[in-house]
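Narrative of activities, Objective 1.

The group set out to show that a structural description can be obtained from nothing but a protein's sequence at a throughput compatible with the screening campaign. Below is one input-output pair from the validation batch, recorded exactly as produced.
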Amino acid sequence: MESCRNTPNFNREEKIDLLRKTNEAVAFENFLHTKFVGQKRFSLEGGESIIPALDTVVEFGAELGVQEFVIGMAVVEGISRAKIDQYYEGNAKKLVPILIHGDHSMAGQGIVYEVLQMSKLPGYGTGGTVHLVINNQAWFMSQNLRLSSVRNFIEMCLWTF
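Output recorded for this entry:
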């Protein structure tokens, strides 16, 4: 990406608003951790930057006329396609699926592979999916180019798109 296009330019009020939303998410996570001790749950720990990213995606989508966002880690595509067909008469511009996953799913044959492979098939396409990647560590332990054709998953995405 061009450096000027990859740097957000937030004013003071926007920065305060993003900080407030991030603090609220962290406080909610702390509440869940104390209320449901020992329970398996999703954690923001180390991935708090997803809050401003989600906020930006939702705000921008709303400006473009998106009426609904489906956010998750696995069955998002099926739910999204069903809602597009049932509630929006096939208009994929009214709903945006958002997949949150780790970078390991970029390299394997998981959800990312499935979404890319099936996106053009009748009955499967959703008009596009936003992928938010948390924990960019897949190549952390294997940065040797003898182990991989790319230096990191971002480079692989550039090959794909």
